[in-house]
Structure formats: C-alpha cells, structure tokens
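A quick aside before the break. I want you to see a complete sequence-to-structure record at least once, exactly as it would be stored in a machine-readable document. Don't worry about memorizing anything.
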Amino acid sequence: MTVGIVFFDVDGTLVSPGSSSSFLAARFGHQDALDDAEARYAAGGLTNQQVSEVDARGWRGTSVVTVDRWLDGLRCCPEPRPSSRGAVPTTSNPCSRRSRGSP
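That is the input. The structure line, written in tokens, reads:
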C-alpha cells in the first residue's frame, strides 16, 4: 500500500495573480496593511507571527459565509484557452469551487 501526501503552492500557482491572503485582505479592508507587513517580513523586519497578527485583526467579526462568498471571486488555475483550432474547451474549470460541488 502506498501512502503519500501532496502539497500545493497555492499563491502564484493555483491562484493567479497575487496571493490569496492579499485577495481576502482587500475584501476585509486591510490589504495595504497586510501587503506592507508581508513586504517587511520578506525584508526580515517582521516575523511570520507578526504578519499573521496583522491579518488576523482584519478577519475579526466577519462570518464564514461572507468569506466563502468572497472566495468565489478568487481566480484559480489558468483560464481555459482556445485550442489550435480556435475552440474553447466546454468543460468547467476543475479548480472552480462550484464545479467541485461546493456551495
């Protein structure tokens, strides 16, 4: 029996463009603060814990239903492209939350 685990690099790979945290922070209203904190983290000026605290303060008071609705607008995976014959595939995007049966 084979047992394994799969890891996905979400931001910039499955989510395009940008990061999922920045996408949500824009909806919460603290994108500038989070983007600044992430830049300071990348430069060594903040710890991951400190960046997480900046982000967590923005989530306070927002319902799961609201966040779920916002995530419907998150672009995931490359969009279907026309084939060499100009036809666009008719199958739904496999990364679409709706196509996977999510609410």
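Two observations worth writing down. Residues 89-94, 96-103 have pLDDT under 50 and may be disordered. DSSP finds four helices and no strands in the chain. We'll return to this after the break.
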